[in-house]
Amino acid sequence: MPSPLSNESSIMKLELQSASNFLVHLVKLGRANLSDSQLDRFRSAVVEVLRRRYRDHWFPEKPYKGSGYRCIRINGKLDPVIVQAAESCGLSPQLVRSTFPSELTMWIDPLEVSYRIGENGSICVLYEFKDGVENEPWRPNLVTNNANAKTPSILDNKNKSLLLPSSTTSNNMSHNNQKNLLESSSTTPAACKDSLRKMDFLLDPRKSVSIEQLAAYVSS
Fold this sequence. Notes:
Elements: H1 4-29, H2 36-54, H3 67-70, E1 72-74, H4 80-88, H5 93-98, E2 104-109, E3 112-117, E4 124-128, H6 175-183, H7 191-202, H8 211-219
Antiparallel strand pairs: 1-2, 2-3, 3-4
């Protein structure tokens, strides 16, 4: 009989794979000069750390319950979850941190994974479960096929503070409330695809663009 952890692993599989693929994509584009085997180990480590962390905080019937706990936050320092994953596969957390934008927030919820680059950037849907189709985790080569993802636009300046993420220690507005508020405003369906295209374009190894310029550009 499978263990509870195995059951949870199966339930969370697509969401965790989408999140880990995205984080590895950023590391790879950040020119960290890591081998494919190192990136694969890091990807697996991220999935395993998140799986164990979320095993008792995953509620498919109430997807946004516990969203703050599952939020990954990278700002002045690397989220402890990512530090643990890096160290478990022999990577330097400092090296991994150097590949990410100065501000990155990711929400990993049942049926949906979303992220935001910069403090005032749009919340972008990375993975979204859809009924009636064969769902797959997000991968870099699927970016151009993600045109149907709905991404809220940035609110006006006076409401930008409402875009601050939930966190494990914060009493800020919940991710659920943020998303409800955002979806009540106008949406730009191509924004998620465009931001990912910008990311790949700006981090092309043939171009001398810093990760800070990327964050500023995507958040603009």
